[in-house]
């Protein structure tokens, strides 16, 4: 459980740390990556935005908000995604153009996969909640029979009358 709770909070830190790691790795690389420079500079904001979107979709689930813990599926998918981002930064720092390109493509695919997994889990959780609501609506709210309203007479208690004032 501690790992699932840790990943709940790691998501916030990863939004800042992982894209920053990629930019720092690019700045310490001994030589430029050539055409890969543009992809590195595009990967930074794309990774940040995708992490924010996945965070929002993940935190949209009530079970995540109430327990402040992610599911094991979230932990595995996010862990793999974060690991790929770290490896991408390592390859960028080493100026390994081919490896950085392959890892960058893998990072983009992993981003889509993690978003898909988070969205799927949100839809399953929402479906369960809707089914629960509809199941509770199947019950009869009032017992069957005739409803009789109680009649109120002026002798039952104080009556307050408010007349609109004339101007």
TrEMBL record:
Keyword set, alphabetical order: Membrane, Transmembrane, Transmembrane helix
Highest rank taxon of the organism: Bacteria
Keyword Transmembrane appears in the UniProt entry: yes
Residue stretches spanning the membrane: 7-26, 38-60, 72-92, 98-120
Name used for this protein in its record: Uncharacterized protein
